[in-house]
Amino acid sequence: MAVADLSLPLAVGAGPRPRSGGGRFWLWGSALVAALVLAPVGALIWQAAQGSSGLWGHLWAHVLAPALGQTAILLTGVGLVVTILGTGLAWLVAAHDFPGRRLLEWALLLPLAVPSYIIAFVYLDLLHPLGPVQEALRAALGHASPRDFRLPDIRSMPGAIALLGLVLYPYVYLPVRAMFAMQAAGLLEAGRVLGCTRARLFSRLALPLARPAIAVGASLALMEALNDIGASEFLGVRTLTVSVYTTWVTRSDLPGAAQIALVMLAVVAALVAVERWARRRQRFAGGAQRLRPLVPLRLAGWRGWGALGIGLAPVLLGFGAPILWLLSEAAGRVASAGISAQLWSELRATLTLAGGATLAVLLGGMVVSFAARLRPGAGTAALGRLASLGYAMPGTVVALGVLVPMGALDRLIDLGAQTLLGQPAGLLLIGSGLALGYAYCVRFLAISVGGLDSGFAQIPRALDQAARSLGHGPGASLRRLHLPLLRPSLVAAALLVFVDTMKELPATLLLRPLGVETLATHLYGEAARGTYEEGAVAALAIVAAGILPVIALARLGRAKAPGRDG
């Protein structure tokens, strides 16, 4: 019997051996994906070098200095708003119990479904001097004309900071709430034994422990604010992103736009460096025993209802009011004129571009993550980080970097077609939307890589060894073992990439083929013309799609939150 037991693994291992080159194939594939992500940066540097020697001085005096100043003010203001609002709301929900708390936990994520350009689009109409809010205020106060009473203009730097803060604070709220909920109750109880008040416990103990989560969330929010083009332009704030767009499209100065884009990359690098600096020397050590989660403080009576009101205020301003306005305007538009054929065409174009980009992003992410699975080490980890760099680059920077190599390839293809076929091929890559799809892949590959890395981490490596012992190579193992187990991660990553692609405005605006409009670019055009009711249906469709990943995040948070009693 002992002999039979020992011979079994030998017999199993005697099957066909996987080819040794399988892992090398995935490694080279990962390197190719990382090179494709880095190519726009190299093209951007090359294009910036084509400008004349005096261009930098002119750009600095007339474009860069004002744009840098406005960008710095905007990012500082938005950073303060999202940090204070997100951290305060996270502590309110994690450390207190009051009526409606369970509802508020996920409702505070809803503003994530509203892109920044849509909230600017809505509030420009709501708070217009002749809009419903100011007219109602004048009627209540007894004034008949905007000359007698009007609110401060929303088209301003404070207006941009407030509106961007309302939709970006969940980036801070979500990780900080998780951090507060995971903090050991024993730490806070020890502080109370030492005589600390609740406010002192928050400022001296909970807040320092949550600083890494605050830094990560705030840096993500600031990168989104830097990427914004619609809200900033609508609200009259001339940021670096708006300057790239106007320099490229309005002035037809590609080298100048590339030079401004390099400054934007420097700003992004500075944001990442500040985030890393804020998390330096942050360590948390716990005992081997499972930590007891934080027990919320019960707020009864007017305190509980007051807490609910404070928590609902940003939800109503950042999600409720825009949704009600969009529903009202969209219903009026559909009732009077129906849904135009143009809108259906734009919806098909949006879904086609988003669907194709999602498939390509998932494929690229699978190559990078599976290479790291097959050959764990510093090399594949570095390739994964390089492949994820695009998410930190604003859409205008990615679009500008993609235009240069795609334009060069288009010229080569056109020259070849004229030589071989006697007729031009035209802008084959840019005109077909392949260049825009490439920009989407560069921009959102990090979502796929991060999601699949997390999924692979949940699969025991013993299963890989068992597959190899049965003679399965890397491709067969991926197809028959990993893909079925990775289905939840693949679905989550696909959902996030699809919705982010639908909402992406800067890259779509700059690289879409001639004659092609998406829901986002249609909305941008209507807002630029001031015809807000015409864009309400498109805006509502984008927000409806954006709600899907918010629901997934809320369900995930409820499933993983400690101390749930069901």
Describe the model.
The structure is a single chain. By secondary structure, the protein is an all-alpha fold. It folds into 2 domains: 21-50 and 352-486, no CATH class; 52-281 and 305-331, MetI-like (MetI-like fold, Orthogonal Bundle). The protein is 77% helix and 1% strand. It contains 25 helices and 2 strands. The protein has a two-stranded parallel ribbon with strand order 1-2. The longest helix is centred in the N-terminal third of the chain and has 41 residues, at 55-95. It is globular and about 75 Å long.
SSE layout:
Elements: H1 2-13, H2 21-48, H3 55-95, E1 96-97, H4 101-107, H5 116-126, H6 132-141, H7 157-168, H8 170-182, H9 185-193, H10 198-227, H11 230-234, H12 240-250, H13 254-278, E2 297-298, H14 301-337, H15 341-374, H16 378-387, H17 395-420, H18 428-432, H19 434-457, H20 461-469, H21 474-485, H22 487-503, H23 506-511, H24 519-529, H25 532-560
Parallel strand pairs: 1-2
List keywords for this structure.
566 residues; mainly alpha; MetI-like fold; 2 domains; two-stranded parallel ribbon; 77% helix; disordered N terminus; disordered C terminus
CATH class of the largest domain: Mainly Alpha
Q: Please mark out the parts with pLDDT under 50 across 5 or more consecutive residues, or reply none.
A: 1-21, 284-290, 562-566
What's the arrangement of strands in the largest beta sheet?
1-2
What would you call the shape? globular
Largest sheet: 2 strands, parallel
SSE arrangement, N to C: HHHEHHHHHHHHHHEHHHHHHHHHHHH
Q: Rg from C-alpha positions?
A: 26 Å
Strand content: under 5%
> Number of helix segments?
25
CATH architectural grouping of the largest domain: Orthogonal Bundle
The multimeric state of the shown protein is single chain
CATH superfamily of the largest domain: MetI-like
In the residues, how many domains can be counted?
A: 2
Average pLDDT, to the nearest integer?
Answer: 81
Report the CATH topology name of the largest domain.
MetI-like fold
Class by SSE composition: mainly alpha
